[in-house]
User: What shape does this take?
Amino acid sequence: MYHFYTEKTNISDKTISIFGDDVNHIKNVLRMKEGEEIIICDSEGTDYYTRIVSLSKDEVVAEILSYGISEAEMPFKVHLFQGLPKKDKMEMIIQKSVELGVYDIIPVMTKRVIVKLDDKKKEEAKIKRWQAISESAAKQSGRGIIPKISNCLNFKESLKLAQEMDVVLIPYENADNSHEGMKASFDLIRNIPVGSDVAVFIGPEGGFEPTEVEEAISFGAKPISLGKRILRTETAGMMLLSVIGFVNGDRQIE
Assistant: This one.
């Protein structure tokens, strides 16, 4: 079934209303009619299985058939702190990370970042476009939430934010990639507590400065290895999110 989102304020005991661009999409693009069934999410992790009962110019109303916690979400919240990459790589990172289950994405300015978002209007335009990409990817992959793309932070600000989280992981090419080191990294991932907040730090092109990794460790980050190969910035986060999701995908929030 097609997947749409609405605000919780649009949900009553028996019906749900959809407004905005999705009304046109449902009526004129998908050409859906009364009686057809769709999934509507409250953007907070609950899926409602519904049947369309009316379509007007500005509103689609659907009756609630059943509802439940979205099965598309991880058993914990993964916050991706992504060093800003060059060109349009950030768009692909957002799209694929949303597909892989990320909870939100925080762009980070590190020492080796080349792209600068030092113009407020430029940053706002970027964030707006990135948020639209997140919403589109969330719909396509049947997510229970639309991951938020935050404003850009410097490295110190991002560490302070991550310090409030339960687990902080920073993949690093100089981390121990021996058999024992890889096993230790895997154990960290496998034992992430259900219901926790997990910060994942990914460096830009060129990676992190050694001093940045040291500072992250002083804030409680755990350096982990992703193997013996050096991964690009647009690959590293996806690889780690894939492993986190695969290893922990059958765990449930109690």
